[in-house]
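Replying to the earlier thread about multi-chain prediction with a worked example.

Input:
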Amino acid sequence: MQQALRLCTEVLLQPGDQAWMEDPGYPAARRILQSRGTTLIPVPVDAAGLDAAAGRALAPAARLAYVTPSHQFPTGVTMSMARRIALLDWAHEAGAWVVEDDYDSEFRFAGPPLTALAGIDGPGLDGQGRVIYIGTFSKTLFPGLRIGYVVLPPALVTPFAAARAVMDRFPPSLLEGALAELMTSGAFAAHLRRMRSRYRTARDLVAEAVTRAAKGCLTVTVPDQGLHLVATLPADLPPTAASDIRAAAGTEGWLLSETRLIPGGADGFVLGYSGHSPAALKQAAARLGAAAEAYCRRHAAALVK
Amino acid sequence: MQQALRLCTEVLLQPGDQAWMEDPGYPAARRILQSRGTTLIPVPVDAAGLDAAAGRALAPAARLAYVTPSHQFPTGVTMSMARRIALLDWAHEAGAWVVEDDYDSEFRFAGPPLTALAGIDGPGLDGQGRVIYIGTFSKTLFPGLRIGYVVLPPALVTPFAAARAVMDRFPPSLLEGALAELMTSGAFAAHLRRMRSRYRTARDLVAEAVTRAAKGCLTVTVPDQGLHLVATLPADLPPTAASDIRAAAGTEGWLLSETRLIPGGADGFVLGYSGHSPAALKQAAARLGAAAEAYCRRHAAALVK
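Result:
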């Protein structure tokens, strides 16, 4: 993802150009765009995903929109078909690019997936599609593999290859060969199937453990997809509540506030449930829930005094 | 190498900054610097390597010098100790950076190696070293591994790591682990030893085959080090001679003229002798030599007419 988005900024943007970013959204993507001098435009996300009409109102002439439509980070919402169409319509009118980061799409636990933006987009009046589709094997296999991929409109293939050639020339052929064999042999599909059931179990286990221990202090949204869930604190807590609770529990992961470009709203936690044993996940979730409960209790007591 | 040099340009240079480049020199390095808007300053190379005094005369305030001191590309000369000191003196006075690309240093066939610039440089008045040492496993193992390394003055470690983090985050940990095991087990050292003798044989075989077939039309410099040699044509041939001969022979590789920033001087061929069987190398060398001989003969006949 990192390298693909970095290539997008190098090939498609000039420093100072505007880019729509989901708010809340993925901090790593923000950092990459900012490192190349891009001006970030926070576009609100609701239950239907990124609001293209709000984006138009804020920055109609932006050059790029970075979106996670199949499973928004961090909220987990899926972008509705109406919103997808609205986003693509804007991109074609504005001559802007839509970068579709389809991370975690392999781990869908319920409901039919929506077709990717790259799948519903077609050539516009200029004969050109506007979607750059980014995927990764970091979640489906392991992060240390460092292999991702990008599906480009034909006209962008040559400029992307040229930009890559002066970045690190080409990817490691040994790992690419091993991955290709894993995919053609069917072992990758079997692995995904096994992992999907394992992650669904992990999701339920974390959601239950954190909810039970928090005794009403955390509101957990159980996602249909992906490897993380969001647990939200009550809105009336002090601004340091979430980081204090995280420190007390000794857990890791983003705070909800860290994913926001425009501060505000209730804080909370983005809880990943991959990469650890069920026992360790359950324990950490219970610890976080208990720390939140203790914080809420103390806060209520302080208010009564 | 590519990624390391790219990181150097991002961390150390602003677009428009001047950089000393060896002339003739490595075209891939030029392309990376140019892709980031660097102004290239061609600095002549003679039998003692890059001429720092000439560099000072041309661009005293350059911000960076890219050099291949242990085995200059393409000429194969080793930078003398006096020139190394002169280069480092300039870098400390100018507050400039020296990027030392130590490619092929593992394949030395004769004579003692000179200590790397990074080994003789010390902290200047500002307490800081000025050399960035770049190495690669592309030649010692294979190019598709895509693992290189860079040895940095301490003050540069954090900015380089930050620049890398927004480029592709981190290197593939699986390959790094395998490589570390290869090195600690001693297998890498044994491999280098075997390869050194194999490449020396390949060097002699190519030098002999091309010299014999060319019947005086090519002057071959047999290098003490590395995986390529230079074969030079007579100075009085037409400008397209080298590319015509390469096309007629059906061989690959750089022309000497392609490694020059300032055109001029006799053209010729940079002949690599790694990655192919001895039989294939010998055959290709003989083909190139014969094509050169035929060209020289036709050219002489044309001049006589």
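Chain A has two domains: 2-184, 196-304.

Feel free to reuse this layout for your own posts.
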